Amino acid sequence: MANPIFRQKLATGEFFVVPGIQDMITAVIANKVGFDLVYGTGYWLTASASGLPDAGIATYTDMRDRMATLVRTSTAAVIADGDTGYGGLLNVHHTVRGYEQAGVTAIQIEDQEFPKKCGHTPGRRVIPMEDMAEKIRVAADAREDKENFLIIARTDARESEGMDATLRRLEAYAKAGADVLFPEALTSEEEMRRACAAFDKPVMANMSNGGYSPVPHTTVLAEIGYAYAIYPSLTSLAAAAAMEKALVDLKEQGIGQPEDLFSFNEFCSLIGFEDVWAFEKKWAR
């Protein structure tokens, strides 16, 4: 059974935030900080695990395994990036079943042509609206937990077809059975307000640092009318900046023990070494 926390939080009508997770180090730090939900981001899980761009190169099997590892590691419920469903209708059915069996709470499916591209890079192309609506109908039918496993429908039509077409697509996806609507890469707060005002269903925001969309304060996002926002790139870009600084300091200044490092002993505890030590103490011969 999917974790009901996502459905329950949406039902309250109170805005919430969901951090993106790019690797299991991030997952255990998010555990420490405390979140009810985390986002398994396709872009950053692919970058961290394979050193490859989010361009449809990672396979369904790759991503399902990464999501299953995230579910095992995280104490929060996982919203999972399912790309395009990795193919046609049969692939969508297989993807939804596989992700649900992996333990995620929701799957996000987008209307790009396969192979897809990151939603904040140029040259994205979308499939016909009715083809995507059919994918959503298949996804909604494929899930076993009809109440708690949620379907998020994303459209990337803003770049190629404009805002009016984006809203028409989301309306079709809502009618097809999507639980949450995801207009990707909106370019202004005005567009965000239009999207939120157009639907009774929850609308989510993608706060991709450095992307096409503005990243206002969470109080503004709540006032605009979003149900929640994901922050897929926040931890990855913060970590990359910190790692670059540490490596430059090491190379140029010989500093190998900076003052602002995370505690090694605390991280050993977060990652589970205390359980290992307790086991060894119990069973040592």
Automatic annotation (TrEMBL):
Keywords: Lyase. Gene3D superfamilies: Phosphoenolpyruvate-binding domains. GO terms for molecular function: oxo-acid-lyase activity. Coiled coil: none annotated. It comes from Sphingomonas lacunae. The keyword Zinc-finger does not apply. Pfam families: PEP_mutase. It comes from the Bacteria. This is Isocitrate lyase/PEP mutase family protein. The keyword Magnesium does not apply.
